[in-house]
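Supplementary Methods, section 5.1.

A reviewer requested that the exact input to the structure prediction be made available. We therefore reproduce it here, unchanged from the version used in the analyses.
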Amino acid sequence: MMAVKVKSREILQMVTAYPLGKSVYDLQKEMGLPSIINLSEIENVFGCSAQVKNHLTHQLDHLFTYPDGSARLLTTKLAEFLNVKSDQLFIGNGSDEIIRLLLRAFLNAGDEAVMAEITFPRYKTNVTIEGGRPVLVPLIDGTHDLDRMLASITEKTKLIFVCNPNNPTGTIVEKKKLEHFIAKVPEHILIVLDEAYYEYATSEEYLQSVTYLKKYSNLVILRTFSKVYGLAGLRIGYGMMDPYIASELNKVKEVFNVNQLAQAAAIVALEDQKFRLECVERNEEGKHLLESELTKMGYPFFHTQANFMMIHTGQPGDIVCRELLKHGLLVKSGAALGYPNAIRVTISSMQDNHYFIKCLKNIEKRNGGVS
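The structure derived from this sequence is encoded token-by-token as follows.
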């Protein structure tokens, strides 16, 4: 094979591809396991609404047509549901795409974007690709240090990202602290509140941010249908923002960025709020079980407001992950997430949660307990 003479952009030398790892199928084959329970990807293990599945069968006759590039029907339904105006909404191919488009539209080469040191990694990656400089602020006990983020603002700052609840820790910032933070950020700097796990947050300390859109034109709120609505495979998310910001995003997006099935599924998912509430309730039950059992076992963890938990294992997360995989459980090692002696686990069905605890106890017994 001939050597490739074409060179990519210099900035890509600073970027690595997102580590996807081996597929569940490959791991099953490699480990000789009949099945694997996947608790590594923060998906809604309860699936999606049955109404969505039924509705999508009626969409199959229309696959030869292009989707609505403006997602008008979904935008109208969302505006009614959220009590915002249609021109305040932007529909994306997952909220990931909206992050990318915000940076494409508003970040110039050399501009800075402030974010937590340990948070959703695509902020940093996309800022770097656009020629910007990520400014990383360490967490305090797994939570955003908003005071230090404010102190990190310079004349070059263009955006600030706050992931709330935060991935991978599941923590939230207190309501009054976030209110104060939003008020203090200069109005020419975009505040991006990534609320991908919004529906799972049940704490009274969680800020209901939508009402702040009226007061702060630099506020962008991102949410998704990938998590509680169980549509991760269709890739659809949305942002709420000032109409000017949405109009600029429309200039840099692909014409048909959200496929037809995703738009149809999101509309029906939004209508089936009973399913959403059931998922949140089952997640709360699973969370309380895990917190109770882990506390008895002496495992520290971050108190989560999402559908996953970061558990401090007292030994390398890679080792714990390998041991759990032998039992047919796939979880995420904290080594790739900024916490090498931890694992991140999706909260699952009660049966799977009990099985996870049982396997963790077996590993603890063999390894002599938590250090």
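The longest strand covers residues 157-163. These observations are discussed further in the main text.
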